[in-house]
Amino acid sequence: MVFGDGKTPQQVRSIAEEILSRSGRVLVTRATVEMRDAVAEAIPGAAYDPVARTISLNTREGAGAAGLVAVVSAGTSDIPVAAEAAVTAEWMGRHVESHHDVGVAGLHRLLDRLGDIRRADAIVAVAGMDGAMPSVLAGLVGSPVIAVPTSIGYGASFEGVGPLLTMLNACSAGVAVVNIDNGFGAGYMAAVIAAGAGRAGPG
Prior knowledge:
This protein has 203 residues and is an alpha/beta fold.
């Protein structure tokens, strides 16, 4: 994985080429359009997702999808972080189903999707503002929930610290928490869990 922030397009291109030559796959997060253009010159098959801000390619044999990850976001503003998680889990070889705008401020929205979410081997729950959705969701499902606080919210959310503390203090069992806006970390962990869920193969 290449974290794009703070790197030049040429640096990202060089690192991506090296990683791909060694492992057969590469993922760039926080990628800009300029990084996309630089990487495309060297790796024509790499896919750019402008919402997730990722560049990805997996050429490894046996990289077919196995295991199911549900990526759930509370609000529309949380979608970029959720998309990063979804791209990561797919890059890891998992099936991914995304469910957006299901925050608990309108609990019926989450309940309407609950049947589909419960089928997942692992769940990524992305929320800003009060960060309550992952704890509520974990009380309704049997699969592990990886909670992702986002920096979305008004001043008292302190750019994601508020929802981070809410998630760390969750009273529902089965919740793990990654850092603020860390869609990659959540997607990666969910993919690892889904791979070991009994019906999935290795990543």
